[in-house]
Specification:
Oligomer: single chain
Number of helices: 11
Number of strands: 24
């Protein structure tokens, strides 16, 4: 017999599981994908995948910063761009995790919802044979003198349980040991389902916003305006299914922009308030109205919001070419580099003849010259504005068809005219001053100063759904954490001269620190009820 057992064991050891057929493999993969463990892992992966979006500048938010980052990091920049780390939230790998999470959540929620619906319609389970094995159990002895039968005791327990929100099931009411099963806390599972369903709602709302919404950026200088059309924006990022016909035909004009700076010694120069006074029209036929745009206080046009995300100075210049003609005239936005609004500026005059002209340098709102003759900015308010420029002539490269940034000047094909290391030095212009370029190449005049605002225009049709879904997810999470799932059973028997013996037991699904307190509360209510009933019975006796 022992030999036969060893042989059987050897045969069992040699037996290999048959390979899974394609259908079985698909079923196994689906079960793995739709498990709660996989959903939680995908949610974690999505959170980790979103981290590069906060570490690297994102092209939809500020394409100029992305271009500058790639230029400052010539080795790593193109490599990072190849992995779509500047477009994290629209990248292929982020979208893949997003889609898998969406499928996993649906695969988790639908079967659980069906199971919950069946459980909700089913009665509480029958009373266990041995209640003493439950985590919380006890016995209440009702003396025979109180005149409370087992059936009456079970009815009282059922009434108390029903008053505390339990579902009730009476068992064996006509037998010698009737019992009652009580159950509550099904809303806990409902909260769990609500939480996961709301997560699906968040994913759907985000997808709707990404498919049918758009985001655009615009630099708007004082006394200038624009109408909401794609061509007027500095950058425009439509959703994959967005139609330009959906653009709300509003119009904006920047009348004045004011910044209030702190003048207290401890926080001198820090901005306190930004206010953009604007004239707006909801559509071409609407009457103009005045609005004030502030940080975190957007102007709304239906579902489109206009946000204030930046500001700066735009020196007004006039550039004349070597033939004395005006090649460029108007404000040129500068980019602030610090809290005192010391800014870099690039001026391009592609219409200059016979050579195109370019200028690069910095703008100081309040220029102060130190002992070495070096100018620096001392205050963000324009109390002594000054332009410091180097000049170039030649081919600006704007006719090559290759997109270039308006905030950068490629000097590879240009010849420098002015600079600190040049015989004529750099160009230093105070307000309303002019400078004649060397070799008769032209001139530049600092005509004045304006402010500009950077606007972010956002249309997101999924934001309301995302808000509602997020609120519902929070509500579902609160219900899941705070509502306990409990079951209670009572069994009453007639013990002759001793009276009626009521045995009860409580069981919780998961850890429930309040189970013992619930047992004490219910026991106290029933004891008090039977005590009062005994007194009434004695009063009714003749």
């Amino acid at each position: 017999m022992a030999i036969e057992q060893k042989t059987s064991a050897r045969k069992r050891k040699d037996v290999a599981s048959p390979p899974l057929r394609p259908k079985e493999m698909l079923r196994w993969a689906w079960r793995q994908l739709t498990s709660m463990k996989t959903a939680l892992q995908l949610l974690l992966f999505l959170a980790v995948a979103a981290v590069p979006g906060s570490l690297f500048p994102q092209r939809p938010a500020n394409p100029a910063v992305v271009d500058q980052y790639i230029q400052d990091h010539p080795a790593a920049g193109p490599w990072l761009d190849g992995f779509q780390l500047f477009d994290v939230y629209s990248s292929a790998w982020f979208s893949a995790i997003y889609l898998l999470l969406f499928i996993s959540l649906i695969g988790c929620v639908v079967p659980r919802a069906l199971h919950y619906w069946k459980a909700l319609r089913s009665a509480p389970p029958r009373t266990p044979r041995r209640l003493s094995r439950l985590p919380e159990h006890g016995t209440i002895v009702i003396p025979a003198s109180k005149g409370i039968s087992p059936g009456r005791a079970v009815d009282d327990a059922a009434r108390v349980m029903r008053g505390r929100g339990y579902r009730i099931r009476l068992l064996d009411p006509e037998s010698g040991s009737p019992s009652v099963a009580a159950e509550r806390g099904y809303i806990k599972e409902a909260g769990n389902l609500l939480f996961h369903t709301a997560l699906i709602g968040v994913l759907i709302s985000t997808a709707v916003g990404g498919m049918f919404g758009y985001r655009a950026q615009k630099i708007l200088i004082e006394d200038e305006g624009f109408t909401n059309t794609e061509l007027v924006y500095d950058s425009f990022y439509p959703g994959t299914n967005f139609d330009n016909a959906w653009l709300t035909p509003f119009a904006l004009t920047l009348d004045d922009f004011d910044v209030v700076f702190d003048r207290e010694p401890d926080n001198y120069g820090n901005p306190i308030d930004f206010s953009a006074d604007m004239t707006v029209r909801d559509n071409p036929a609407a009457l103009p109205r005045q609005e004030t745009l502030k940080v975190n206080e957007p102007i709304a046009f239906g579902g489109t919001n206009v946000y204030l995300i930046g500001n700066g100075y735009a020196p007004v210049v006039t550039v004349r070419d070597g033939e004395g003609n005006i090649a460029l005239q108007g404000p040129v936005p500068s980019i602030a580099t610090d809290g005192t609004y010391n800014s870099t500026i690039v001026i391009k005059a592609p219409d200059a003849r016979p050579f195109q002209l370019g200028f690069v340098g910095f703008f100081l709102p309040t220029a102060v010259v130190d002992e070495q003759g070096v100018a620096f900015g001392s205050d963000p308010d324009p109390m002594n504005p000054q332009l410091n420029l180097n000049s170039y002539y030649g081919n600006l490269g704007l006719d090559s068809g290759i997109p270039t940034s308006v905030y950068q000047l490629d000097t590879s094909e240009l010849t420098q005219l002015n600079g600190r290391d040049k015989p004529d030095g750099g160009i230093v212009l105070a307000a309303y001053q002019s400078y004649e370029l060397p070799e008769g190449k032209g001139s530049i005049t600092f005509d004045g100063l304006k402010r500009y605002v950077a606007l972010d225009v956002v249309y997101d049709p999924g934001k309301i759904g995302a808000l509602v879904s997020t609120s519902l997810a929070l509500l579902g999470l609160i219900i899941t954490l705070l509502v306990p799932r409990r079951r209670i059973w009572f069994r009453a028997v007639d013990n002759g001269a001793q009276g009626t013996v009521v045995e009860y037991g409580l069981l919780a699904r998961g850890e429930d620190h309040g189970l013992s307190k619930e047992a004490m509360r219910i026991g106290g209510k029933l004891t008090g009820l039977w005590q009062r009933r005994s007194i009434l019975n004695r009063q009714e006796e003749p």
